Amino acid sequence: MTTYPHLLAPLTIGDLTLRNRVVMGSMHTGLEDKLWDMDKLAAYFAERARGEVGLIITGGYAPNKRGWLKPFAAEMTTRLQAMRHQRVTAAVHDEGGAIAMQILHAGRYGYHPLSVSASAKKSPITPFKPSALSTRGVERTATDFAKSVALAKKAGYDAVEIMGSEGYLINQFLAARTNDRTDAWGGTAAKRMRLPVEIVRRSRELVGDGFPIIYRISLLDLVEGGQTWDEVVELAGELEEAGVTVFNTGIGWHEARVPTIITQVPRGAWRSATARLKEVATVPVCASNRISSPEMGEDILASGGADLISMARPLLADAEFVAKAASDRADEINTCIACNQACLDHVFVNKKASCLVNPRAGRETELILLPIRTSRPGRRTLGGTSDAVAAPAAGPSDVPTVAVVGAGPAGLAAAVNAAERGFAVTLFEQAPTLGGQFRLAMQIPGKEDFAETLRYYTRRLDVLDVEVQLSTHATPELLADFDHTIIATGVVPRMPAIDGIDHAKSVSYADVLSGKVTVGRRVAVVGAGGIGVDVSHFLTHDPGDTDEDFYAHWGVGDPALHPGGLTERKPRSTVREVTLVQRKATPIGIGLGKTSGWAHRAVLKQSGVTQISGAAYDRIDDAGLHITVDGEQRLIECDHVVICAGQESVRDLYDAVGGHLIGGADVAAELDAKRAILQATELVAAL
Ligand code: NAP
Ligand code: SF4
After folding, report:
1. Nearest Cα residue to atom 3 of ligand 1
2. pLDDT value of position 678
3. Pick the catalytic residue: 61, 109, 168, 456?
4. Whose CA is nearest to atom 6 of ligand 2?
5. Chain-centre distance of CA 345, in angstroms?
6. How high is the pLDDT of residue 70?
7. Is 317:334 a contact under the CB 8 Å cutoff?
């Protein structure tokens, strides 16, 4: 008897029987584009197939050069390319998995001068203005899609997904916003729908009846001039007639100014939109976006709201997601925290995607945690490499020992990975709890998911028998007998040399987020990095806000009443007056992550946070914070000044005992959980 009977039930789609309902949704990793990355891509997918996911969907492959995401991006246009992909499909099949190729035409989102669209309208997020496809060009594009589908079948893919959402070419044809055409492919809603219907019809003709064609349909465009719900339903009906096997679902165009997947979006936020399609669809429907736990997936399926659950980032975070859920070990799942910091933020700046909580994602062939000994049967290493190396067996007494000092993200990652490899690990932490800076981060509204990472590490420490000594100040004497010492003593908030920094009004962000200090109604925040922005949100946020307020604040309405599902935004109620100040003259928040920074900046604006750049700090006194901006002296009257001016490394212990230095204790200037966890994992892999 399983806890997730619906999630783990098989499903037959066309000629393909999936072993369970979990779909690894399409996400570009940057490994798709180059021939020499093909083996890495195969290893990345094979690890997920070994982790028992039901169906994997690749990143998007263009049906022709005009459809590239960027110059020389991945495409599926020749038999030779199809042959090369057999390495990927074989690797997945060898692990008992199934894999679909996604065919994606970027349209006006193509980051190159050859881009095309329904009309010559530039997108707000790309610098290139597309050409409008000619009538013959549209015909050719539909045929190119179908040819790519047929090639994918030849390559051994078990299915295809046609990308019709997120604002890419097909979506650009569907929405009045981007389709001004007056020929047979534009004008009325029926004509705007012709392209996807033709693509599916022509694809079906080429691949025959049983081959599953998944179509990713945009349920809510979340842009002005988006589709109405009636149009979405009509399109679904036409696509079913044309031969679609499954609907996957998409929410929001990339240019939409509503967050759809980042951490401040409530979990399962879009499930009702999928359930609405499920009511009218005659083929299976797959729910997606902000589903990151087996519980949520099970609940959606059990309620009849979908037939399949798509998760992309959660499968980066933990390749064994399904296997753990199936073996009653869901509490050992390394949960995606929806931060985007190492996945989508990388992809959008042309870096290879990985994962903040699992830096092995995308590096399966490079970052390998080999077991140090073979005398513990049954222990599985990350990556399943335990049988790859037979290091000399060691008796229990000669197991090498590792001391890790500090239980923030760096120390936790080091301790768990070292224990995974077979070291005998002791973790020392001065505080009474695990987590370090992560414990502060999870106090930020919308970052509650960060608690999942601590749950994961806590559980793994237990399962791996790591000796955890909390409330313990590690001394050189305590560390003297260990074979390896890893120092992850973290950081303390920097208190800059501002006149009056010791004034009672002046407090650190750590004291505020930990609840040690409750600040007054008027607050000045010094420093507008990631933490200054987060603290401003924390201070202004109304604790009475519910998940429902998320839709109201971002103006998400019923697409049956409002095309694209966009409506008036409800102003946020704020509980404090906050002024956020920085020395740099640049706009506040421009250094934040590509895919989430805009949403953080929007929240600051919606919350009425006053933003001041180019300031010099004069002093803090009873009146508040005195600054000079453009040569003019100003006073920010406030009850408290919260200092968010970065951090300083804590290295006393390292200076005394040496060893390996990682995380914020190593480099405070780039204090960042992504860097900390990667550094810890690389260090332990090399021990
Ligand atoms: P940070 O991003 O480096 O920002 C600290 C800010 O303090 C700087 O922007 C700097 O701005 C100011 N500052 C530095 N030295 C100062 C001094 N002596 N006097 C006055 N101001 C000074 O560091 P953080 O905000 O503490 O964030 C730490 C890490 O957490 C970062 O790596 C960040 O990526 C990560 N994080 C990210 C997010 C996110 O992406 N949403 C959220 C939280 C944390 P000026 O010099 O212009 O004043
Ligand atoms: Fe999830 Fe963050 Fe990892 Fe991306 S980087 S998969 S959002 S935890």
Report:
1. 646
2. 97
3. 168
4. 313
5. 8
6. 93
7. yes
Could you tell me if 541 and 506 are in contact, meaning their C-beta atoms sit under 8 angstroms apart?
Answer: no
| Residue having the nearest C-alpha atom to atom 39 of ligand 1 | 530
**Residue 182, number of CB atoms within 10 A of its CB:** 8
pLDDT exceeds 60 at position 439: yes
Is 4's pLDDT higher than 50? yes
Give the span between the Cα atoms of 253 and 289, in whole angstroms: 13
- Residue 15, Cβ neighbours under 10 Å: how many? 13
Ligand 1 near 672 CB (within 6 A): yes
Contact 347/368 with Cβ under 8 angstroms? no
Q: Judge if the beta carbon of residue 607 lies within 6 A of ligand 1.
A: no
Taking residues 57-84, report their average pLDDT. Answer: 96
Task: Tell me if 646 CB under 6 Å of ligand 1.
Answer: yes
Nearest to 169 by CA among 112, 253, 232, 229: 253
Backbone φ and ψ of 351, nearest 5°: -105, 160
| Average pLDDT for the chain | 94
The pLDDT tens digits of the residues spanning 626-670 come to 999 999 999 999 999 999 999 999 999 999 999 999 999 999 875
Q: Does the annotation mark 457 as catalytic?
A: no
Which domains, and CATH codes, for the chain? 11-333 (3.20.20.70), 396-492+648-686 (3.40.50.720), 495-645 (3.50.50.60)
Structure tokens given for 148: 């790519």
